[in-house]
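ok so dumb question maybe but i'm new to this and my supervisor (M.) told me to 'just get the structure for Secreted subtilisin-like serine protease' and walked off. so i did the thing. is this what she meant?? sequence i used:
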Amino acid sequence: MRPPVRLLYGAGLAVALLLPVAAPAPATSPARTPTALPAADGKKGQELPGMPAALDPRADEAACTPASGEKAKKQDWSRQRLDLDRLHGHSTGAGVTVALISTGVDPEAAGLDGRVTAEGAAADDCVGHGTFLAGLIAGTGGGTPKLVGVAPRAKILALRGTDRRGQPDPALVTAAVREAAEARADVIAVAVALPRRDKALTRAVAEAGRAGAVVVAAATPDPPSRGSADEIPSRTYWPAGEPGVVSVADMLPAGTRPDGSLPTGTVDLAAPGAGVVSGGPRGTGHYLGAGVAVATAYAAGAAAVVRATHPDDSAEAVTRRLTATAYPADIPQLDAYAAVTTVLGDAGPPAAQRAAAPVAARDTSGTDRATGRATLVVLLGSAGVLAVLWAGFGFSRARARGWRPADAGPPGRR
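this is what came out, is it supposed to look like this??
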């Protein structure tokens, strides 16, 4: 009977050793895992005035956004999420021009260091939103280096796509896209989203693509300040819906889209869009900003550092880098550092496909914790099985010896 017993225990030990290998694997195993992030800075002591995307259109005379008297006390979560400290060891966007189509940009704004070209109405940023976005793309942070933009050595070509109060104008957007293409801008960031497709704008975007520009656009407008966004059906906005345009949505620190976001099925990337800190056109203070335009500015900055690092890449290749290296989620999440440093093959990973229905970015912050707990449970279970099997093996050997010690001789010998 002894051989079968040994065979049984040997098989049990093998099963116990193989248990950790057979443990269920997570549904996905991406190469990178987002760092745990704090909540938006507005809830963490960054008491700063908000930067509006537009001024009240109903007011007879809307006063421009006043200068902020407050300074940020720390780096916000968005710059940590994009890993800008490491990114700038590889690329700062030097030699690249980003055309920003928004409310205009103040050429003398703090942190932009004379790298802004703005003519006529584009140099008058009453709202302040365009200057705020320019800081996220190419700002040096002024006296606060931790608030540097994604591409702090890139140049900004400021173009107006709204009226003076920040209301989008299709004719202005179309003219701005054409001007950016004629100026041979490397990246064109359209920070506004229009509800209707316009043939002239479609042609302008196509011309910009043929000129070699990477066009990045807001996937949706910001939700209405009054009423419920839930009542608005999913739709495509423009020029984000045009072929070849990188469509960008905003996300919270957890990776989810903000409550009340307008639904759309045409999103290529999600980027930070809440509790983000930047400067404005007046003074040296800071503001808190949020929304799809903020996320679009971050994606445009990422396109700039990619173009600086890979100057021979076509616009299509830059777009593929941004989408193929994004953190995998329902809406791929922008990873500027990976976009610059990842070595892609000739074919490379498939670019992100636009969703056929409204989607929301997945909260991936608990993945590592869940995987760690599962691994610990499996290891403890395996140890328990080994202990039981070893005890059983010792029990059978002791009984076979007649309960004598292992070093004792046969019965009757001294």
